[in-house]
Amino acid sequence: MPPAPGDREARRKDVSEAVWSVLAEKGFAGLTLRAVAAAMGVSTGMLMHYFPTKRALLTHALDLLEKRTAERPRRARPAPGLATVRAMLLDILPLTPGDTARNRVWVSSWDLSLADDGLTVEQADRYTRLRSTIRPHLDAARDLGELPDDTDTDRLAASAVAFTHGLVVQALFDPDRFPEREQVALLDEFLTSAGTRSRPGSARIQQA
Fold first, then answer.
1. Do 138 and 156 meet the contact criterion of CB atoms below 8 Å apart?
2. Helix extents (H) in the chain
3. pTM above threshold 0.90
4. Domain 72-194 has CATH 1.10.357.10
5. Which architecture does CATH list for 5-69?
6. Residues 111-144: tens digit of each pLDDT
């Protein structure tokens, strides 16, 4: 018999915690109904009341990962323009153990998302939203003279996300080569280079 609505909501929270536990330990490759059921100490039959298919479980896991990412502590936005862009991109990088674990889970999800057309669209939408949150701050940087007047901020937002996620992957695979200090230095060089065609001194970034 399916659980009552109130019990279902409480149980779904338990399920989400179990899904997150499995993701943190095994990544998406190890995310199965059996693994989540074992983490909860229940049968796979009970779990199938919530996730009748593996795809439903994966979709929930991706939504949960996005929610956990959005709710994580963020750096203060120090000033309009590039200083805020810098803080936003630092929030993405694997600079702490928690950030590293979260990024490992994200990267492990890519293979599954690429193999499923629906999940591919959802992942593309996540990148669209990320670029859209960065772009207004690049517009502000352009208005402040930190970027050239002819800067295409849509294109620069795409470049910033591509650069940052490329750095994430390198840091995950080679943490000794890309420790926190090196990641921050490379990000600062990227942002400074974005403003090198503007007037002298205008691209100086306020350090957080």
1. yes
2. 5-26, 33-40, 44-47, 54-71, 82-90, 97-114, 117-143, 153-173, 180-194
3. no
4. yes
5. Orthogonal Bundle (1.10)
6. 888 988 988 998 999 999 999 999 999 999 999 9
